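Collaborator request, handled under Task 6.
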Amino acid sequence: MAFSNREENLEDRPGDVENSSDFSYSVLERSSDIKSDLRRSVMQGSDADSGITVSGVKSIKIKLYCDLCREDKKLVPAEGFCVNCNEYLCMNCFDFHRKQKTLKLHVLKDKCNMPQDRDAVNPIDACVDKCSTHTDKLIEYFCHSCDQLGCSACIVTGHRACKDVDFVPDIVANMENSEESKQVKNTVQHLSQKLVLHKNRVVSNIEQSNAFRKKAKEKIVKQRQEIDSIFDRKENDMYAEIDEIYNDDQVHLTTASDLINSLTDKVSDIYSDLCSSSRNRCQLFVATKMAKKRMNAIERDVDTLKSANKVHNFQYNPKSQLQDELANIEIGKIKSVSSETTKRRVSSRSIDVSCKEDINETRTRIVTGACLIPNCRIAVIDSHRDTCKLVDLRTEQVISFSKFDCQPFDVTNVSENEIAVTFPVEGKLKLVMVCDDASLIEQKTFDVGAGCCGVHYFNRKYVIAFKKCLGGRPRIDIIDLQGQLLKSIENDNRRTPLFKSAYYVTVSPDGATLYVTERNKKSVICLSMDGQILGIYMMESSSYGIAVDETGSVFVCMTDLGTYSSILQLSDDCESAKTLFKVDRVFLSAITYCNENQSFFMPKYEQPEILVVKTENVDKDSKK
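C-alpha cells returned to the collaborator:
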C-alpha cells in the first residue's frame, strides 16, 4: 500500500497517538519523522502508537486543572485531556471517560501527551465516526482508488495495493465549502422538493380515485332503480370490479405514500447528519461520502414513484336500452346437480411414481393414504416403507421423497402448503409443511391416541378414524387446530360400540355428515356429526378408502384381495350403491377425487403407480 504524495502540514495538527487504535496528534517540531513512523505503523498492521516515538515535543509547564471538577468548585490537577470534549480531566474523570460506552471513541490524551494550550487543539479536524467493520476503531482513512472509507485495520487488510490512500484529517481542509459537500446538500434539497410534489400528488390522486369510485357507483345505483328486478344479480359484480380498480389504486398510492414518507425521513436524516457535521471537517467529509452513496439508492427509489404514483381513470358507462335487453337476455343457466348424478369412466391411465430412493428398498410397498394438494400435486403415503412421496401431476414426476421415523398411515390436505399425517403406532397426528422446493418439514405433533388411521380435514377441524390396535378403541375423534378434543364418537345411544375397526373417514361438503369405512365389517357407515347413524351400506368385500365430490356423491374402494378392486358410488344416505368401474388384479386402498377435472387418483397398493380415471357426469335424460 502506498500513500499519496500530497503536502502535509503536521505542524498545524495537534495531538499524538493514543494507546488505543485511534490516532491523535500533538504540536510537533519533527513532523516529517512522525509522519513516516505513522505510515510505517499502519503498513505493519499494528496500533499506531507501537511504531512511533515522539521526540522534539515542545513542553510547557503549566498548572492545569480538571474542568469537570472545577464546575463543582474543586481544583483537582488534570491528568489527561479529551480532544472531542476539549476538556481537561483528573484521574477519576479520565478513567470514567474511558470506560463509558458512549464516550468510548473519544480521543483521550494522558498527562504526558495532553496539550498545554487548549486553543492548540482543533476538534473540527478530529475523526470521530466509528468503523462499522472494526467497531473499536475510528474511520480515519479514505481510499481514492476504491472510493471507500476505512479505519487503520481496513486500510491494512483491504487496501495494501491501493496507491491513493489519504489520512482523512489531511484532506478535509475547508470541507464545509467544498463543491462535493455543496452538491450533496443541493441534491438532498432537490430530492426533498420532489418528494413533497409526489406526496401532494398522492393526496390529489386519492381524492380523484374516490371521485371515480363514487361517480361510478352513483350511476350504477341510478340504473338499478330502473331495472331493479333484473339488476340485482349484476350490481355486486360491478361493485366488485370497481372496487378492484379502486383497491389496486389504493395499494399503489399507499405504497407510494409510504415510500415517500420513508425517503423523506432518510433525506431528512442525511441532511441533519450533514448539518450536524459542518463544524467538524472530518465528520463532514465522512458524512458527505456516506450521503453520496445513500443518495444514489434514494434517487432510484424516487424515480420509481413516477410509475407508482398513478391511478386508473375510469367511469361506469351504462349500456343503452339495457332494461329491454336484460328482460330477455339469458345471463346463464342454473343446472341442478345432486349426489344422485351418475358418473361414467371416460379414460384411464397409470402414472409411474418410482424414484431412485426405491432402488435399494427391500421392504414391500404398502400404500395406505393419498391426498390432492393445490398446484396439481398429490401426496402418497407408503406405510411399510415409512415414506411420503410428492408427485407433480402435470409432469407426472416425483418431486419430493421424505422418510419418517415411524410408520404413517393416511394424509389429508390442510392448506396450500400444509398436510396432516397419522401415525397409528405412535398415536400421533403430525402437521407437515410443504416447502417451496417441495421438501417436507414436520411442524406440530398432536398426541391423539394409538390406532389413528384415516384422517380428513374440514372447517378448521380434523376428523380421525381409529382402528382397534395397541389398546386403542375404535372410534371417530374430532379435534381442533390446537389438538383439543371436541367430540368423540364411539357408541350408539344404547352404549353399543359403533365400530369394530374404523379405517377411513370423510365428511360431506356441507359438513353435516360423516362417512366411515369398516374394513372388518365390510361396510360404510353414515353418521350425523353428533354420532347418530343415518345409514349403513353392506359391501361384498372389504371397504377401504373413501371420498366425496362437491355434490355430495360418496365413492369408496371395495377390494377383494388378490382378485379385483371396484369403485362404488353410494347415495348420500348410504342406502344404495352403483359400481362405477372395476379393475382386475389390482389392489386399491386409498382414493382421492378432483372436482375440477372429474378424475379419481388411486395409488396402487403394492405397485409404484397411481391409477388415474377421468369421468363425466351422466344426466338422467341423456341418451345412451
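The cover message to the collaborator said: "The first strand starts at residue 80 and ends at 82. The two ends are 92 Å apart (CA to CA). Please let us know whether this matches your experimental observations."
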